[in-house]
Design the sequence.
């Protein structure tokens, strides 16, 4: 036989010897020790599984805390951006002389954009307006009847004729 076949035959014999029948020759003390070892291994595996479950639960709680912190940081950033934009808008409005009730119409993301909107708004506010009619100017007097002659009535009143 070749060396490979001899090694395979020895391995086959070794496999047949191992297993439950191989455990029996240990004797009562060996069997007790083996049973105790198996019980200890089983309890250790159970304890390890319990500890792993607790560790997973703690990691999940920490992850939840991390997510809460990330959410709070995102909200704080958004609030900071809003306050910064509002502050910039108010500063530009103050510089350009925009009335307080019109500040809300200034839009844009940068100071330059907001300033451009403020310039347009102020140009429209300061644009010359069409003059309104002046009631103190022009003819005054009472209205005349449709069948009357205003010139004749004026002459009669100046001459004192009724």
Sequence:
């Amino acid at each position: 036989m070749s060396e490979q076949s001899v090694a395979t035959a020895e391995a086959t014999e070794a496999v047949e010897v191992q297993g439950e029948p191989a455990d029996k020759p240990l004797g009562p003390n060996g069997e007790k020790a083996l049973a105790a070892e198996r019980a200890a291994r089983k309890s250790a595996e159970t304890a390890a599984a319990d500890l792993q479950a607790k560790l997973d639960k703690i990691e999940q709680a920490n992850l939840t805390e991390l997510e809460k912190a990330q959410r709070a940081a995102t909200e704080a950033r958004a609030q900071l951006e809003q306050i910064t934009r509002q502050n910039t808008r108010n500063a530009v409005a103050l510089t350009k002389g925009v009335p307080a009730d019109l500040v809300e119409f200034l839009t844009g993301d940068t100071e330059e954009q907001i300033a451009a909107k403020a310039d347009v708004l102020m140009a429209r506010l300061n644009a010359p307006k069409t003059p309104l009619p002046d009631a103190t100017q022009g003819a005054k007097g009472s209205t005349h009847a449709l069948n009357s002659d205003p010139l004749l009535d004026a002459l009669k009143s100046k001459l004192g004729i009724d």
